[in-house]
Amino acid sequence: MRTVNVWVQEDGIFIDKIVLTTNSSYTPSGTGPAESLRGPVFVYDGGGNRVRAVEAGSITAYVGSWYESSRVPGDLTSNANQYYYAGSQRLAMRANADLYYLLGDHLGSTSLSYKAVGDVVQTQT
């Protein structure tokens, strides 16, 4: 019987090392190679929903279409976005502590976003 142990980075995407051993008391040492972002890499669940993306130097985790959290490897802080819907129409987004309202056009695209305090943030024409 052979044992295969696989250790991966905390984001679960890149394999640091593969150890094949018959020594059941073997303990890996070191931290493996430096993490490198190759990409873009997208991970999907069994239903075809994106659950993780690695691109442009950051790692983003998705929970449905309602929540996403991104971070840069080595940085302990993350940026979280939470989305609010009425049916299938996205109405608002909370980015960290700020709330933004999203106004759509007749095709369903966001054409105007503004902060809850009333400041226009972005317009699309």
What does this structure look like?
The protein is mostly beta strands and 125 residues long. The protein folds into 2 domains: 35-77, no CATH class; 81-125, no CATH class. It contains no helices and 11 strands. The protein has strands spanning 3-8, 15-21, 41-44, 50-55, 58-63, 67-71, 79-86, 89-95, 98-104, 110-115, 120-123. The strands form 2 sheets. Strands 3-4-5-6-7-8-9-10-11 form a 9-stranded antiparallel β-sheet, with no helix packed on it. A two-stranded antiparallel sheet has the order 1-2. It starts with a strand and ends with a strand. The mean pLDDT is 76.
Give the radius of gyration. Answer: 20 Å
Helix-strand makeup class? mainly beta
Any idea how many domains? 2
Order of helices and strands: EEEEEEEEEEE
| Total strands | 11
Give a quick precis of the structure:
With 125 residues, this protein is an all-beta fold. The chain folds into two domains: 35-77, no CATH class; 81-125, no CATH class. It has strands at residues 3-8, 15-21, 41-44, 50-55, 58-63, 67-71, 79-86, 89-95, 98-104, 110-115, 120-123.
